[in-house]
Amino acid sequence: MARLAQTAGLTDIQQEILSTVRDFVDKEIIPVATELEHRDEYPQQIVDGLKELGLFGLMIPEEYGGLGESLLTYALCVEEIARGWMSVSGIINTHFIVAYMLKQHGTQEQKDHFLPRMAAGDIRGAFSMSEPALGSDVSAISSKAVKDGEEYVLNGQKMWLTNGGTSSLVAVLVRSDEGHPEGTAPHKSMTTFLVEKEPGFGEVRPGLTIPGKIDKMGYKGVDTTELIMDGLRIPADRVLGGVTGRGFYQMMDGVEVGRVNVAARGCGVAQRAFELGVQYAQQRHTFGKAIAQHQAIQFKLAEMATKVEAAHAMMVNAARKKDSGERNDLEAGMAKYLASEYCKEVVEDAFRIHGGYGFSKEYEIERLYREAPMLLIGEGTAEIQKMIIGRRLLEEYRFQG
């Protein structure tokens, strides 16, 4: 797109990175995405290409072999990738969150051990917070770690792991009562463990099983799985940060930047839906002229483009706020909420513009129509975002009476 979703103030390096990613998306992802998605096939060749581009280490510091780029650069790259195929951006995102948590909260030994191989893409990350009965209530986590000498024994069932099968490192949030007396607030008795495993399905290490992929409506290609721990033994030096009881805060920090990522994904999918809609509207003719010449369609295109532009601006603002070192949970929540809702609406409008053909699997918009709903719940539902936004607004605008 020539005009929409432009970002002012980018450096020459940022522009070069984005140009490279955009070119890769146009040549290597868009032509094959729908076919791979319909087969629910993992995009290995695409992932290998992203590895060669260095995107697995985009935000990892240069001292560990990464590119040391900003959250803004990363989010703009995700926007481009999601424009091609949202599932590919999910493969990158979960890896990025684990690398970010390690960079921010890991011990020096943990950083030295994992980050160089994560930057190279040789270790792929996934993170695990949700459970089958959990929903949005993270405090209700029931998976548990019990200290046994110099190890912890983990038991429980986790849910909705993106990259569950293909990853080789999983950041797992569990309850750990050791050192936390009865009555301690639930969020103060949680710990994140760095669990190394073999890629694949079944028993991937003693005490750890990754069942097969969950069959999903959309967001296919990327593997989404459960994780079952039954007597899984983890050394004490694989507690993220080396101290128990900090897992909730570590995960929330990761999810906060993840919300910027989901906003970027929503922007990318919405951009692609607009591209498809405006292109089809100029090709399809009714009543003697292209449907783009009908006022009703022009109104729809105008609304779609405005939503794309607004979501992009909010996403960029949230990323820049985080990069500045300031708290950005308000901006990230707003960006995630708006971008995911607008994405759904823009995709649906593009679907309507296609008419009956939008229902055909021969048309790309059919895939986007099934993918967009995932963004409404990923990294927190709209209702959770509203709670975050509302609480932060009351902090900022506290009545002094």
| Low-pLDDT stretches | none
Helix coverage percent of residues?
Answer: 40-55%
Task: Calculate Rg over CA atoms.
Answer: 22 Å
Tell me the quaternary state. single chain
Our count of helices gives 10
Strands ordered across the widest β-sheet:
2-3-8-7-6
- Biggest beta-sheet profile: 5 strands, antiparallel
Shape descriptor: globular
Portion of residues in beta strands equals 5-15%
User: How many strand elements?
Assistant: 10
The helix-and-strand class reads alpha+beta
Average pLDDT: 93
Q: Gap between N and C termini, in Å? A: 51 Å
Order of helices and strands: HHHHHEEEEEEEEHEEHHHH
Q: In brief, what are we looking at here?
A:
It is built from 10 helices and 10 strands. By secondary structure, it is an alpha+beta fold.
List keywords for this structure.
alpha+beta; five-stranded antiparallel sheet; 401 residues
